[in-house]
Amino acid sequence: MRKLMIIIQGDFVAPRFDLATEVLTVRLEKNTIVGEPKMIIRERSSDEALCQMAVEEHITDIICGGIEEVHFNFLVWKKITVLDAVVGSWQLALEKCVAGILQQGEIVISKKDRRLSL
Amino acid sequence: MNFLFDLDIPLLLEGIPHPAMILDDSFRIMAMNRLMEAMTGYSTDKVVGLHGELIVRSNTGNNRSQLYSRVMQTGVAISVAGDIINSYRRKISIQYSIAVLDDKSGQHCGLLVVAEDLSAREAEHKSEMNNYSSLELIGHSPKMQKVFELIPMLAQTDTSVMITGETGTGKDKIAEVIHQKSSRARFSFIKVNCGALPPGLLESELFGHVKGSFTGATRNKQGMFSLADKGTLFLTEIGDMPSSLQVKLLSVLDDRAFIPVGGENKITVDVRIIAATHRSLREQVRKNKFREDLFYRLNVLQVHLPPLREREGDVRYLLDFFLQKFTRVLNKSIVGFAPKAMQSLLEYPYPGNIRELSNTVEYAVNVCGRKKINTDHLPPYIFEQHIEENPQPLEVAAEKKAKKKSVVDEVSINKQSERLENWPEIERQLIIDILKEHRGNRTRAAEGLGWGRMKLWRKMKKYGLQE
């Protein structure tokens, strides 16, 4: 069982980990989504609090935009797989991640998504 | 504007010496220069058509394109400081400048975004801050090292600081450094000399006044407290502050609010106070010249700056530092001091401390027309004072004079005059000293002073030395 956390802003993966207030958690079983994705709106943005949350929620994978080295290293040290600097729609990123083809720094945006507002 | 040539936008962007990009009217990237590619970690061909903020991930309040929208709507360029996190997980400080672009019909059609990388400048500033000598704080003596160790601790807190030390020891400089190293550094550091202005003017200067509050108050004026909001207010010569203002200052320190002269409404401020004085405030409190409660309120953290005569070995460093400084400023080619001049300068006691030393070197650099500063280039008082104030011969003379029942012990006066400012204080100290010397025997003390017993009794009564 994998537990995925995507740091989002509207329809997009949030540009910055430290400024994001929206978090989506998804459970994955054998590369399929189990149950409904859970959306959490946080009262305020905090990179420290997000790291803490990831550890407490037993997250195995994180998809995010820009993240500072220190927080990246902390999450990796906690044995969490971090796919950072991802740009684009979080739904596309999630699909790619489930399929196991999402990469760090990937721009996942369709022509349709380009019209979406940040 | 109609150009006589076609603008090649990518080429134009390359000419900008900072990371830059052009966005269309929906804030999507049209072009980026190579510096922007390097800073963000994305190549232009991959990001063309993407929203600018997805690539330049700034914290400048541009969340959900607020800044872009504002510039696009108003047409007024803005520039804000902040940082970005690039794809290499590096946080880079930037100055984010956004300007609108118009098409031929004058309609806003896009934005020019420049993100100046400030990290190099900040690193330089940090190294400057860590290196005290670049802040003109020179000191290798143990006493000064202790002061330097205190500075980071004092900078971390918002508590009031009291800086004491003789005139010319660098109280202002230390106050400024504490401010610069504190979290208030990006706000104002305002210095007010409490001894330089008459009470009425000082009150208006500190707390401001409203129009019509007194003759000549033709407009509202903000006081130094308002101007220093979120910053630091440095009150120098606090020992000379009039009593009436001391009360008001105390209430500001307690309530963090005040009413301007002639005003009705309270103004709330967040100001850190650093006070300095060359007087002994405890002595001032004892004489009822300074409020005890204010003294305790200000004297939370204390830094004492040692006089130059107590800073072993620092004179040489300071001489070299000021020589280099003034040689550079005055465009001279002096390389150093001749041994005799250096000897004289090292032996001089510098009662005016670093200010005097600096002035002495400035004089010498101005006068000197050669490669090395000689004794001829030094101010004459260096040699005169040196004879008078050399402590060793004076102490010997003191012993002799005490035996000879001299009327006034010149040595004591010389010694005390460094600390005491007026004659009654000097005379009082003189009586104490002579009484101590004669183990409280008044007859012999009076003889020592060349006075009768009655005069000694009268003086002791005057100075409160009677049991």
Instruction: Return the CATH architecture of the largest domain in chain B.
Output: 3-Layer(aba) Sandwich
Strand proportion of chain B, as a percent range, falls in 15-25%
Q: Architecture of chain A in CATH?
A: 2-Layer Sandwich
What's the CATH first level of chain A?
A: Alpha Beta
Oligomer: heterodimer
The chain pair forming the largest interface, with residue counts per chain, is: A-B, 24 and 24 residues
Please compute the radius of gyration of chain A using only Cα atoms: 13 Å
What would you call the structural class of chain B?
A: alpha/beta
- Integer tally of domains of chain B: 4
> Are there runs of chain A of 5+ residues with pLDDT below 50, and where?
none
Number of helices of chain B: 22
CATH topology of chain A: Nucleotidyltransferase, domain 5
N/C terminus separation of chain B: 93 Å
Question: Overall 3D geometry of chain A?
Answer: globular
What is the count of DSSP helices of chain A, taking H or I runs of 4+ residues? 3
What's the CATH H-level homologous superfamily of the largest domain in chain B?
P-loop containing nucleotide triphosphate hydrolases
Order of helices and strands of chain A: EEEEHEHEEHE
Radius of gyration of chain B: 32 Å
Q: Which structural class do you get from the secondary structure elements of chain A?
A: alpha/beta
Report on this structure.
The complex is a heterodimer of chains A (118) and B (467). With 118 residues, chain A is of the alpha/beta class. Chain A has helices at 47-56, 69-77, 90-98; strands at 2-9, 12-13, 22-29, 32-41, 61-63, 81-83, 87-88, 107-108. Chain B folds into four domains: 9-118, 2-Layer Sandwich (Beta-Lactamase); 131-305, Rossmann fold, CATH 3.40.50.300; 311-388, Helicase, Ruva Protein, domain 3; 392-462, no CATH class. Chain B contains 22 helices and 16 strands. In chain B, the strands form five sheets. In chain B, strands 2-1-5-4-3 form a five-stranded antiparallel sheet. The longest helix of chain B is centred in the last third of the chain and has 16 residues, at 314-329. The interface between A and B is medium-sized, with 24 and 24 residues.
